[in-house]
Amino acid sequence: MRRLGEAYERFLKSAPSNGYAVVDKDGWRLSTDPTEKLDQEEQDRLARLKSWLAKQMRRVKLPDLLIEVDNQLGFTRNFLTPARCEEPSPEDICAVLASVMARGRNLGVYTMAQLTSDVSYEQLKRIGDWHLTEEPQRKRVGRNGPAARVLRRPC
């Protein structure tokens, strides 16, 4: 919190001479750096580079990413009942991930239940109401704290 306060103070001291970020009666205004004007040959090279980069980028689906992260950190255990968190079944993990995605993507539990065949509305609602609320999350953050303590810590 101290670092944030110091950064804020530095910003306020430099605000009068800061041409990049200005706060006025209309709110924040951020300036842009002047760009070079590209000739047609450079624009074509840039287009080819963008096309090549787009082909090289690996597409990652959100469920696959969450499963990979859970395989490494086991974070879904924090959203299960104490009886299930020691040996969670794949179905338990899928239900937690579906609930996280339903809330994180603003789909809602009803829509997510319609999109998934193996997770019911009741499961998603229970997980969301009992395990994804602010109080249980605070307890879990306190219990798991920095990343070093998250790794496979018992429930």
Explain what this protein looks like in three dimensions.
With 155 residues, the protein is mainly alpha-helical. It has a domain at 62-150. Helix content is 60%, strand content 5%. It is built from 9 helices and 2 strands; from the N terminus they run H-E-E-H-H-H-H-H-H-H-H. Strands 1-2 form a two-stranded antiparallel ribbon. Mean pLDDT is 82; it is low at 147-153.
Summed up, what is this model?
With 155 residues, this protein is mainly alpha-helical.
Structural class label: mainly alpha
Number of helices: 9
Shape: extended
Give the DSSP E fraction (strand runs of 2 or more residues): 5-15%
Overall mean pLDDT: 82
Number of E-type strands: 2
Order of SSEs: HEEHHHHHHHH
Between the first and last Cα atoms, what is the distance in angstroms? 29 Å
Q: What is Rg?
A: 23 Å
Q: What's the arrangement of strands in the largest beta sheet?
A: 1-2
Bin the helical content. Answer: 55-70%
Would you identify the regions where 5 or more consecutive residues have pLDDT less than 50? Answer: 147-153
Query: Sheet bearing the most strands, described?
Result: 2 strands, antiparallel
